[in-house]
């Protein structure tokens, strides 16, 4: 097998392993921070609602709910992004493992071909060992002779059935 048939196995997967790990950590960290701030913001909003009066109160409540909803969505999106990067990282590791296995296989094939070139014609013909001769076939077991007796008794009187022992 030639190198061009195996393509990219001779290169490592072009992937920023460290950058992916750092990105996962940052996505998870920011999601945790946003979730932690939700509680703090909610407490501050509840405290402000105690003394809040006037026409802007419904707008304040609406904006507080919208901010909380956005925080939930943003934290979820960051967690999803971290999972996507984890999936890419797993896929890159799997591909790297496949490439390493293909390189190892290619080395084994090359070594076998080298060894094949060193073997004698007789070894090549028998592939390094003599063929195994199968044992002779076992003779079939003897078949017993059937024992027939002449028809007798009620069966021989017109029923059409004979007795066979």
Task: For this entry, give a set of tags.
mainly alpha; 4 helices; 165 residues
What does this protein look like?
This protein has 165 residues and is mainly alpha-helical. The longest helix is centred in the middle third of the chain and has 62 residues. The two termini are 70 Å apart. The model has no long low-confidence stretch (mean pLDDT 78).
Structural class: mainly alpha
Total strand count, please?
A: 0
State the order of secondary-structure elements, H for helix, E for strand. Answer: HHHH
How much beta, percentage-wise? under 5%
Question: What's a quick, concise take on this entry?
Answer:
This protein is mainly α and 165 residues long. 65% of the residues lie in helices and 0% in strands. The protein has four helices and no strands.
What's the arrangement of secondary structure elements?
Layout: H1 3-6, H2 17-51, H3 57-118, H4 121-126
Helix pairs in contact: 2-3
């Amino acid at each position: 097998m030639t190198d061009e048939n195996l393509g990219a196995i001779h290169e490592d997967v072009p992937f920023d392993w460290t950058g992916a790990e750092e990105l996962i950590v940052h996505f998870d960290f920011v999601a945790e921070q946003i979730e932690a701030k939700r509680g703090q913001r909610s407490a501050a909003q509840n405290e402000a609602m105690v003394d809040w009066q006037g026409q802007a109160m419904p707008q304040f409540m609406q904006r507080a709910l919208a901010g909380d909803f956005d925080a939930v969505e943003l934290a979820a999106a960051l967690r999803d992004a971290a999972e996507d990067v984890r999936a890419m990282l797993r896929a890159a590791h799997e591909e790297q493992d496949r490439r390493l296995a293909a390189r190892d296989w290619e080395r084994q094939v090359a070594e076998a071909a080298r060894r094949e070139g060193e073997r004698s014609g007789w070894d090549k013909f028998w592939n390094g060992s003599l063929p195994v001769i199968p044992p002779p076939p076992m003779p079939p077991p003897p078949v017993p002779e059937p024992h027939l007796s002449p028809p007798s008794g009620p069966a021989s009187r017109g029923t059409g059935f004979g007795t066979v022992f």
